[in-house]
Amino acid sequence: MKHTKIKDLLCCTSTLSNVTAKGWVRTFRNNQFIALNDGSTINNIQCVVDFENTSADILKRVTTGAAIAVTGDLVESQGKGQKYEIQVTKLEILGDSDAEKFPMQPKKHSLEFLRENAHLRVRTNAFGAIMRVRSVLAFAVHKYFQDKGFVYVNTPIITGADAEGAGEMFQVTSMPLDSLPRNEEGQIDYKQDFFGKHTNLTVSGQLEGETFAMALGQIYTFGPTFRAENSNTSRHLAEFWMIEPEVAFNDLDDNMDLAEDFIQYVVKYALDHCVDDLKFLEGRLLEEEKSKPQDQRSEMSLLEKLTFVLDNNFKRVSYTEAIDILKDSTPNKKKKFQYLITEWGADLQSEHERFLVEKHFKCPVILYDYPANIKAFYMRLNDNTEPGRETVRAMDILFPGIGEIVGGSQREERYDVLVEKMKKIGIDEEELWWYLDTRRFGTATHSGFGLGFERLVLFVTGMTNIRDVIPFPRTPQNAEF
Ligand code: ATP
Ligand code: MG
Ligand code: MG
Ligand code: MG
């Protein structure tokens, strides 16, 4: 018999006879009540077993984690918290689960333990919810851009362009390691590793994306990105997904407008389509908050935070203003804020970013016009800046609890200025001949940004560690499977 998704059964508006549901047992109480989940929703369906007419052998095999099929009538439930339940007439064990050994017994597991069991953690309520929210957000990303007429472009994953990612790139080789050519000191000569060419895994599809924007007008990429980050922060992964729109004839202001509108759209989409999962995650967070001291508890619940982002414009602040705020906000009395002091020209640390967002403005912030020497070579130099204090048309979007979630800029469209800048920092013109072609043939103002998809999922789910919002996190500790 065809089975029905539990989500659809729970949405029914009337009783039904003879339905079949398939799923995994969450709990089995009193030899009678099975809480069954099939992954279609956070909610379990209660299945009431006729234990007097079911063999003891079958009942014994209804254990947490087992896959089963139940058939029976969908009837109104007397129990609390559910409208309907299945009065089981046929119970079939599809796959046993050794309850003694099944690691996902319903109890509170530490996130570290769950990370070590990434293949099974998705059987828990929290990870099922996070992965459904992630999937809906991915769909919303495509929907937003497709509805606006952007062209989806797949930029290469293996690439020879390495101008951007100094020190952060995974090398790609086509040969067995022991047959790679070596230099006189015996070190591998990576310059010859991919069929005789030097290649890496992409750190960003932007440069390639720009070439397509300068033909198709509005494009976006959404694909895996790799950075050999040997750091152990809660917001960096070695493999993450990046969304990178690029738009011809758009300047930095247009770029900020696009980024803000896009983020608000996808957050709203999640609120409209994942409310059960988000409410579950909110409840989980509220429980966690209770164990914190009063003054460290969040002022807003998860749904309030998400709604706040929809209802409030992001605060736009120049880098220079931000530095002034950070200097003014550094009280001498409170030692823990000493780190806030920073000088014009320095890159902001995540503590600075989070101070601006969480303590000062108390809303998402777009910082723009950064010093040229801390940003990438391709960003548009601002006209009329003081010598020694040159700034570029760059912007970062900073979010509460996370810090940077978007990095974007208007690109330097002037061939001569771009080449001059590349020379200064030692990038060979020949290496990027194809990129420079966009400036040779029909150059124009254009801009774009990169948004780390997992940082967006972090914000929407209220989770605090990026390892918990991607199915199989790649970090220095997690690459076994
Ligand atoms: P950060 O300052 O956090 O290291 P970045 O400035 O190096 O980020 P960009 O090169 O600006 O990052 O990349 C654009 C976006 O990609 C970032 O704003 C962030 O959302 C995301 N991102 C960058 N590095 C990572 C990473 N290692 N893991 C997950 N997301 C990342
Ligand atoms: Mg970085
Ligand atoms: Mg950064
Ligand atoms: Mg950045």
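qc> Residues 125-147 form the longest helix (23 residues).
qc> done
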